[in-house]
Design goal:
About 35% of the residues lie in helices and about 20% in strands. It has 12 helices and 12 strands.
């Protein structure tokens, strides 16, 4: 199995990342992407490797649709920069807006969300993602300030399942009609179904890599019994294709998916463009010239290859 380590520059700093490093695996069924963030330990990262190995050794499930609607992603930029960011997501009528960024204020969030709502118009859909950055009280205050912009939902407003449950009760008591979506509480949990069982969310956000592959993610989606949004983990087009495979195989897809994040990158390993607000369900194969141009430095190549081998030893036998 071939391993290609690439370092892809970002257009805008996102999740603290200026250059996205991933290892791409080439196998008999195609390509897989191994890109756990650098701070993740080997035990957590081993699930990401399981997903990459699954993608390059097992054909994707039969699709139920031939295109997957996607959302624009707006990092924690100034309101004046929102239009330029949205222009990178042609045809998208849904936008996910980063909020609760360290060093910024609620006023910054309100200005950014207001700018997105203005750009999309009243028919567009706007969701916010706090990445667990608020306490329950902070989330209640923030969502009260943001709700007038007609939020589709708030993704991971608080960190823990208990906090999400408490927030949903709090929002109901004050008649604040904002859906709560769980992301990290699902993908970083030992038991991904705990969120649904606790009544902690209205929507679940599923990422293929942290759940160990498309098949496992489909099992989680079915067992949760909640509406699903498929999202990416700041992947190249290889990783995005796995997310598209999951979204295409779901029985229902009520929300646009967070799978257009290559628009935040200054380059990519191949062309997989958003067309009229959606990604087509097609095979994705990296361009050899781009793999060569984006190859990570030798020391980073070595670091990632060693990480692959360490994590491979932690994957439970089938």
């Amino acid at each position: 199995m071939e391993v290609h380590v690439v370092a892809v520059p970002m257009r805008v700093r996102f999740r603290g990342v200026d250059v996205r490093e991933v290892a791409l695996l080439e196998g008999p069924a195609g390509w897989g992407e191994f890109g756990p963030f650098l701070e993740y330990d080997d035990a957590e990262a081993s699930r990401w490797l399981a997903a990459a190995l699954d993608a390059c050794t097992t054909p994707p499930p039969s699709p139920r649709r031939d295109r997957v609607p996607v959302n624009a992603t707006v990092p924690a930029v100034a309101a004046a920069d929102v239009d330029a960011v949205l222009a990178r997501f042609p045809g998208c009528t849904t936008a996910k807006v980063k909020v609760a960024e360290a060093g910024q204020s609620l006023a910054d969030d309100v200005d950014r969300v207001a700018a997105v709502r203005s750009a999309l118009g009243p028919a567009g859909r706007v969701r916010v993602d706090a990445t667990g950055g608020w306490s329950v009280a902070e989330a209640r205050r923030a969502l009260g300030a943001l709700a007038p912009y007609d939020l589709e939902y708030a993704e991971q407003p608080c960190t823990t399942v208990a906090e999400l449950t408490s927030l949903r009760l709090c929002l109901a008591r004050v008649h604040l009609d904002v859906l709560v979506a769980a992301d990290e509480s699902v993908r970083k949990a030992e038991d991904p179904l705990k969120v649904a069982l606790a009544g902690a969310a209205d929507v679940v956000v599923l990422k293929v890599a942290p759940l160990g592959g498309v098949g496992r993610a489909l099992e989680v989606a079915e067992a949760c019994g909640l509406p699903v949004v498929v999202s990416s983990a700041l992947d190249t087009s290889v990783g995005i294709r796995a997310g598209v495979a999951l979204a295409a195989a779901l029985p229902e897809l009520p929300f646009a998916c967070g799978l257009a994040t290559t628009g935040l990158m200054a380059d990519d390993v191949c062309d997989y463009p958003v067309v009229d607000g959606a990604l087509p369900v097609v095979d994705v194969v990296p361009d050899p010239a781009r793999l060569a141009a984006l190859a990570a430095p030798p020391d980073r190549q070595r670091w990632w290859r060693e990480r692959v081998e360490r994590c491979r030893e932690l994957i439970p036998p089938a």
